[in-house]
């Protein structure tokens, strides 16, 4: 019989290998003899009463696994974001996406990544306490668009650099985000980006495992995922990042498909229909059809109104073949970022 994770297991589970080797439910006890012993500082605070410690101010978001509130910490007066996790069915335990997010954020400490302050469990309720940032990138771009403004080149460069830095830091820790989109990128009052929502994040396996291809929101999903590849790596995050940077320039999505096939065709119309010459063995992928319409590539410089070096970097991040596609590190080393100070942890 396989038991599920309970909240009182969390202090024992802060080594990411113990969590991320099991994508759905963990066996009890969560022990694997193939990994060395580890030590940790407990993250959860079991005896805090939410009503005594935090004052909920307003609901700011809701998703499959919980509700997010803007709240004030009564002791310090600081504003935080409280993510209340749904625990409606005790037999199901804590949602696996929540477990992953806790473990990944515990091990990802960087100025470009949202900070998880605490995990609180009491009275059969669970809360994640985050630093509060009141706007995501989608809201920010919509605000710019509706005001008929455009973003200045230095703002675009700053945002692109921060986004790629966050992705590079994740990849340097062998972590794929797998759900990059403007709604999962927060923008603070100074215009700085912070990567958030690691519920679909995964630790890279060696050798690569067969992961689900049903990751990444459609508009930011890489062509290899759309074509049914089963083995993939961090290059899917780079593709998503390129789409997001293009969206920062355009103030609208680059590839706004309304179905998987429409998404593919939106990509093909701009980048050209791929074949084995452009992308090694693409015609062997499960969803590839020889009957696909044959489009010639368009000139990205005509589609994206930006600096020449920026468009060149985006084009390299949008290379079809994942092996040839730029990595996050190569993107940071591109001449577009020449003279930009590295962002330290």
Short description:
This protein is of the alpha+beta class. It is built from eleven helices and ten strands.
Q: Give me the CATH superfamily of the largest domain.
A: Transferase(Phosphotransferase) domain 1
Indicate the overall shape: globular
Give me the CATH fold name of the largest domain. Answer: Transferase(Phosphotransferase), domain 1
Pattern of helices and strands: HEHEEEHEEHHEEEEHHHHHH
At the first level of CATH, the class of the largest domain is: Mainly Alpha
Sheet of most strands: 6 strands, mixed
The strand order across the widest sheet is: 1-5-6-4-3-2
Instruction: Give the percentage of residues in beta strands.
Output: 5-15%
Percentage of helical residues? 25-40%
> What is the level-2 CATH architecture name of the largest domain?
Orthogonal Bundle
Provide a count of the helices: 11
User: Would you report the number of β strands?
Assistant: 10
Question: How far is the N terminus from the C terminus?
Answer: 42 Å
Domains (count) = 2
Which parts are unreliable, with pLDDT below 50 for 5 consecutive residues or more?
Answer: 1-47
> Over all CA atoms, what is the radius of gyration?
21 Å
């Amino acid at each position: 019989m396989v038991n599920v994770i309970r909240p009182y297991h969390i202090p024992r589970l802060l080594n990411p290998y113990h969590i991320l080797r099991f994508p759905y439910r963990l066996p009890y006890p969560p022990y694997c003899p193939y990994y060395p012993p580890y030590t940790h500082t407990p993250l959860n605070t079991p005896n805090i009463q939410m009503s005594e410690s935090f004052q909920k101010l307003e609901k700011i978001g809701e998703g499959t696994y919980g509700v997010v509130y803007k709240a004030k910490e009564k002791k310090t007066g600081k504003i935080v974001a409280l993510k209340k996790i749904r625990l409606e069915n005790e037999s199901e335990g804590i949602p696996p996406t929540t477990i992953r997010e806790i473990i990944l954020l515990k091990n990802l400490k960087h100025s470009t990544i949202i900070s998880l302050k605490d995990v609180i469990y009491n009275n059969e309720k669970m809360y994640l306490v985050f630093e509060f940032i009141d706007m995501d990138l989608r809201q920010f771009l919509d605000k710019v668009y509706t005001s008929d403004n455009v973003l200045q080149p230095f703002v675009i460069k700053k945002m692109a650099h921060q986004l790629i830095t966050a992705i590079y830091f994740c990849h340097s820790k062998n972590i794929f985000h797998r759900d990059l989109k403007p709604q999962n990128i927060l923008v603070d009052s100074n215009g700085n980006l912070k990567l958030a929502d690691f519920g679909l994040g995964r630790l890279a396996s060696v050798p690569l495992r067969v992961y689900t291809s049903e990751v990444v929101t459609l508009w930011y999903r890489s062509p290899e995922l759309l074509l049914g590849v089963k083995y993939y790596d961090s290059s899917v995050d780079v593709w998503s990042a390129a789409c997001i940077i293009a969206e920062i320039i355009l103030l609208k999505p680059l590839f706004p498909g309304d179905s998987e096939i429409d998404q593919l065709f939106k990509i093909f119309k701009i980048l050209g229909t791929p074949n084995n010459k452009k992308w090694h063995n693409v015609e062997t992928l499960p969803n590839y059809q020889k009957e696909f319409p044959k489009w010639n590539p368009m000139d990205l410089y005509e589609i994206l109104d930006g600096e020449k070096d920026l468009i060149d970097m985006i084009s390299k991040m949008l290379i079809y073949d994942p092996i040839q596609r730029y990595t996050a590190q190569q993107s940071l080393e591109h001449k577009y970022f020449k003279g930009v100070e590295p962002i330290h942890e």
